[in-house]
Amino acid sequence: MHINPYGSDKASLAVGLVNADPFTDPPAMGELLRHYKTTRPEVDAQETAELLAWAAKLRVVFEATDLDERIETLNLLLGEAAIQPTIARHEGEMTPHLHYSLDTDSTVKRVKARTATGLAHVVCASGGGRLGCCARDGCTTVFIDTSRNGRRRFCSTQCANRIYVADHRARRRT
């Protein structure tokens, strides 16, 4: 599946936040934000706590099994993020593009806007079926299914192999 390139990095940031350790400290959160090319990624303990709370709200979008529930949750998150779209053109860039928060907004506010709109782009482009949670019991990892057929069930080959090997062994025992 082709995801809008402007929305994909934001949706990937949402995945990264949701999959982050709930005990992430400010330096680790800063590294995560830096990895996803967030401007001014340094955050303090309070901002880290706010981002982890936001990640818990984002998780609900991935866990929703019904498109209407997913849309309703996303609409609430878009409202909470207080999106303020603007058209931007950076130095040296000819093509203008949308920003969903102001450059002067706090890191937390910008991350909320980026992740909510990124997931909204994925839901609108895919009909909502491309956001998923790993199907292996005990794994809480979320993902965006970018496969051609849209039938991904596991977060990684490792999780899939554990299930397939366990199923194979169970069949051989009987």
UniProtKB/TrEMBL annotation:
Entries under SUPFAM superfamilies matching the protein: Jann2411-like (SSF160904)
Domain Zinc finger CGNR positions: 130-172
Protein's recorded name: CGNR zinc finger domain-containing protein
Organism: Allokutzneria multivorans
Lineage, opening ranks: Bacteria, Bacillati, Actinomycetota, Actinomycetes, Pseudonocardiales
